[in-house]
Amino acid sequence: MKVIYKTVLPLAALVSLASGACISSGDQNTINSALSAGNAGAIVQLCANAVIQVSGQITFTAENQEISTQGYPTGSSRATIQIAPGNSASTIIGGGSFSGIRIQNIQIDGNRPNAGLQQGGGANIEIGGGATGQVVSHVASRNPRGWSCLHIIGSGNTASPCANATIINNDIGPCGQSGTDANGNGLWADGISLDCTNSLVQGNTITGSTDGGVVIFGSPGSTVTGNTITSSAEYLGFGAINMVDGEYDGSYAGVSVTNNKIVGQKMFNLGIGIGANVWSFNDPYPLKGPVTIAGNTISGSVSFPIAINGWANGITVTGNTVSGVTSPKSSFADASHCSAAIQTLFNEDASLIYYPAGVTGAQNLQSGFVAASANVTNFLCSSTPLPNSISFNKNALDVVSDSGPFADLHGVIMQYQGDNNVVVLDTTNPNGETPVWASGHTVSGGCGSPSLCDMVFQGDGNLVTYYNGAPQWSTGTAGVGNTMKCLNTAPWIQILDASGNVVWDTTKST
Ligand SMILES: *[C@@H]1O[C@H](CO)[C@@H](O)[C@H](O)[C@H]1NC(C)=O
Ligand SMILES: *[C@@H]1O[C@H](CO)[C@@H](O)[C@H](O)[C@H]1NC(C)=O
């Protein structure tokens, strides 16, 4: 039988034809001019496959405007707007607090690998404010120079909050890296940062967020559903879905987080973090529901799949699946620097965790929840597996006091303190971090700020501490020491000669 096809022009094509020619080159000024020329409702379209480099922000100028790629492709032919290297731009598109604006079917690239981290920079896309009905769909957002791939900011005004944002079918990431740069600036970034009421975050694929995958700042009435959030294969991710920030006076009333898929590759510390006291800070008051967290699937390398502490006024956690979480957790993570109660939960491979005294009001928690034995307040404490020992060659260790641990071992931290004391701490003692050895020879007034204390494993093989250039303590191994070895068992620190013989350890007082 012969099939006769009728040619029907899709609605999308009609819209793009109506809007005239597409933009194939230029910069932010080209797009900003088109927006201002078009007034409310203007549809500014980029040509498929166009790459527009910008050195400043594109900002909507009136309600109901749209930026999209002509023909609304969904793959790699979407036009790309990318920050050019050599400037301080961070936000690529700003919503200008206009209601009804739409960002659709384009790629937004902060270009961090070439343009660099922008300290204090904004998200790639910054919409929200006192606006309603904004839409971001089929947009790729990656490599932000600032703290998030996509931020829907609150209005700061309870009388006219940000409302009804629709964030659907986007592919987000990678966003940020782990750790800090040489100046101590955090390199991590969020995937989607939602601070808008009655909004929908659905069908997004977030891969390689390094702070939160979807961070829900209160956002009462919002729904986060059917998203896939996968941690980076290369960098740590702090959390997949965060409900830890006290915006809207702590209210998450009516928020539902359902049917999301969370996958830890290298590692997520937290799958779904819920409450004022699970992140690295403590909000001053409990966060408040009622909320529903249901039907989510968490698998792979996730240290703490669901953790709740600091919640009031209603929480339902049902039908979530954690059977695919890698076990034992010690095969991908190390919690030996966490608080004692968290170490216990980690060693038990607990996946559903709550602190009973930290959850008040109506609650319906699915079976399998394990109670923390104490007020567990920081689930970002896990890391990838830590070594049992590390060694320094001559001249390879030179630190000022209080510059962080010089040896970060499984169950042990070694640090050079602000009073010139070299201290070894056992982090697995049930009573908390316990010093197991200290060099002594402290400086009574402290090392000052900036520190005048310095510890060096010198080129002559001697480990020496100095205050203001004057030696305070040493291992007395000048001329014989060759390697400094730090161990997570006694005697903790050894100096070896070139043949590997121990010429000093902490059992020798000096
Ligand atoms: C929310 O925004 C969407 C997209 O702009 C719109 O279609 C819908 O009517 C809005 N809903 C409400 C309740 O304002
Ligand atoms: C747990 O500790 C945090 C931080 O100190 C505190 O704000 C919170 O009130 C404590 N929770 C309970 C139930 O005591």
UniProtKB/TrEMBL annotation:
The keyword Signal applies. Keywords: Signal. PROSITE patterns: BULB_LECTIN (PS50927), PROKAR_LIPOPROTEIN (PS51257). InterPro entries: Beta_helix, Bulb-type_lectin_dom, Bulb-type_lectin_dom_sf, Para_beta_helix_rpt-2, PbH1, Pectin_lyas_fold, Pectin_lyase_fold/virulence. Residues 1-20 form the signal peptide. Residues 383-510 form the Bulb-type lectin domain. The keyword Metal-binding does not apply. Gene3D superfamilies: Bulb-type lectin domain, Single-stranded right-handed beta-helix, Pectin lyase-like. It holds the Pfam family Beta_helix. It comes from the Eukaryota. NCBIfam families: para_beta_helix (TIGR03804). This is Bulb-type lectin domain-containing protein. It comes from Oidiodendron maius (strain Zn). The lineage of its organism: Eukaryota, Fungi, Dikarya, Ascomycota, Pezizomycotina.
